[in-house]
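Session log. Operator J.P. requested a structure for one protein chain; no other inputs attached. Running the standard single-chain path with token output.
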Amino acid sequence: MPLEHHPADHETRPATPAPAVDAPPSEPVAPARESRAVPATRTSVAWIGVWTATILLVAFIVFIMQNTRGVEVSFLWLHGTLPLAVGLLMATVAGVVVTLVLGTARITQLHRLARRRRP
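Structure written below.
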């Protein structure tokens, strides 16, 4: 059943009268509260982290199981054959290590700078 809009509908409603200037003040309005019924806790954040890690682990296991074909790998003087997933895992771990080393160096640099600026 289609709804029809009649522009004259809002004109037939009585207008709300403006409050009088000398009227006593109404009750104070309380500030709006957060609409969140249950606050986030450390336990709830940890629980979400556990589920996220579990889902990523399952995806990782599926990835490894689907990429077991052997590939030839050469790096500097090392040569060999290993499963594709293991090679990709090694490359990922190397990338993470480089990122952690550079991030740690930057954080250490910022800590030193912050200590110098303290009175």
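Operator note: The radius of gyration is 32 Å.
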